[in-house]
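Deliverable D2.4 — example input (structure tokens):
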């Protein structure tokens, strides 16, 4: 059992290393296929033995071998986070793929305040193909309806606030999010996302990290609300319905 968990953890670290590089390079239009990894500080290519996920960061003391510049903590953080979730999710391939896609969107939006359409489309393709494979026609219709309703609601917010309260990237992502959580849980999903977004926004303002009119990426809150909704959404509905 321990070896199985260890294997999941190692696979997660390796995938996490790829995601860390992808989310750094994609917004900067740097190829993730061609070209070797390089130091963010001195731009020198990183040798293969200094590019081993997590271990190289530890052995190098978090610094580049060439320039002694600090290596961003985002890399080991993403690798460990991915590894932990790989252990928690197990070997459910569909959910592992979806997690990776959502993680990529989360990081890119958090760091750059953009949600690339390509990753939303890939996520939708994975979800739809999974439904088709399972021959769940009624469920895919309800999920498609959920995505449409959620996207329409966020589009309304976008129009009413003239783009200041909601970006079009969030609107497009809502289609994928609605597909994942389904129609019955969609209102809870959006409620959780808005509440957590509001709480974090208030905290950032209070500690001086943001101003009242500062733009805060909403995609990470939509994504973080998905597992919460799937795990406890029905319980929240039952609690609200009992009052």
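Example output (designed residues):
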């Amino acid at each position: 059992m321990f070896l199985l968990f260890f294997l999941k953890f190692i696979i997660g670290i390796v995938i996490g290393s790829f995601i860390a590089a992808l989310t750094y390079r994609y917004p900067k239009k740097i190829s993730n296929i061609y070209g070797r990894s390089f130091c963010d500080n001195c731009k020198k290519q990183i040798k293969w033995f200094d590019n081993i996920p997590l271990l190289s960061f530890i052995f190098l003391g978090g610094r580049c071998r060439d320039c002694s510049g600090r290596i961003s903590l985002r890399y080991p953080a993403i690798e460990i986070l991915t590894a932990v979730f790989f252990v928690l999710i197990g070997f459910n391939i569909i959910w592992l793929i979806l997690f990776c896609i959502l993680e990529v969107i989360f990081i890119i939006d958090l760091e750059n305040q953009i949600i690339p359409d390509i990753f939303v489309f890939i996520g939708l393709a994975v979800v739809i193909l999974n439904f088709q494979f399972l021959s769940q026609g009624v469920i895919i219709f309800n999920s498609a309806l959920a995505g449409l309703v959620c996207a329409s609601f966020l589009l309304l917010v976008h129009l009413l606030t003239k783009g200041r309260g909601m970006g079009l990237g969030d609107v497009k992502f809502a289609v994928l999010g609605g597909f994942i959580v389904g129609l019955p849980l969609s209102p809870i999903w959006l409620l959780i996302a808005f509440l957590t977004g509001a709480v974090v926004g208030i905290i950032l303002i209070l500690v001086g990290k943001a101003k009242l009119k500062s733009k805060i990426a909403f995609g990470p809150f939509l994504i973080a609300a998905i597992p919460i909704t799937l795990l406890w959404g029905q319980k929240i509905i039952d609690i609200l319905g009992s009052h």
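DSSP finds nine helices and no strands in the chain.
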